[in-house]
Amino acid sequence: MDTLRTVLAAGGSAVGAWCITPSTYTAEILTSEAVEFICFDCQHGILDGSALASLLAAVRGDVTPLVRVPANDAAAIGRALDLGAGGVIVPLVRTAAEAEQAVAACRYPPRGVRSYGPSRVGLSVGADPADIEAHALCFVMIETADAIGRADEICRVGGLSGAYVGPADLAVGLGLRPADAAGSAEHAEAVEAIRAACARAGVYAGIHTNGGTDAGRRLAAGFQLCSLPHDGALLRAALGREVAAARAAVT
Q: Cα angle vertex 143, ends 114, 135, to 5°?
């Protein structure tokens, strides 16, 4: 069941988990709560190709697994989809032509360049190329200064599911430290420009957040999907709270 696509198509909003560690147990924990999707981060996470297949298999059946691929590379995109990802998030897309390249990697000829070899996805979706294509969501990340100015043309690319904002890379692209993004009017304007471009093009707007409160604010502002902090950040934050509580009891 493609829960994420179903929720979005119905006009709802989606909250997702983000995984950077190659642990199937962690993937099971992250999808044990009421999330609509999980993203496995092959760009900045410590995941390799062999781990990805096991992680995708560990996802609860009603949660849609996405993969952030390392780059806008047809082979990496096709592999993630063949292994069972319900869609990809493609980083650092700067132009409409690059967005078209990402979409083409999710589609078979004559509409695209994807090589046919469904492997794991064939077990759940079937062997028909049209069904496999329909299963593949394609999000591109708009996170550079030049891409912001081209957001409308990027979001209008045919076959694109939506755009995903990475606030940290967006901050760096604007010449800011990620830690300073929250207080920057320029950063806020850039985020809104991307969201508005998605709305004008009729595609979904997604964004990574720093927690549930931030995610709620983004959804209220018109984003359709938000991801929570990655598993490493959540574990570190929880550990920090417990250590602080333990120290407080004896000081």
A: 30
HSE toward the beta carbon, residue 167, CA cutoff 13 A: 26
Q: Are 156 and 201 in contact (CB under 8 A)?
A: yes
Q: What is the mean pLDDT of residues 179-205?
A: 96
**Alpha carbon distances (Å) from 197 to 27, 59, 150, 158, 221:** 32, 32, 9, 14, 14
pTM of this structure = 0.95
Report yes or no: 80 and 120 within 8 Å, Cβ to Cβ.
Answer: no
- The token pair at 139 is 């999000």
Is there a catalytic annotation at residue 135? no
Q: Where are the domains of the chain?
A: 3-248
Token pair listed for 129 = 């190329």
Residue 216 burial by Cβ neighbours in a 10 Å radius (0-12, 13-18, 19+) = middle
Sequence-separated (6 or more) residues with CB below 8 Å from residue 228: 15, 16, 17, 18, 209, 211, 212, 215, 234
pLDDT digits (tens, 9 = 90+) for 15-36: 999 999 999 999 999 999 889 9
Q: What CATH number should be reported for the domain whose range is 3-248?
A: 3.20.20.60
Q: Which two tokens stand for residue 14?
A: 């989606």
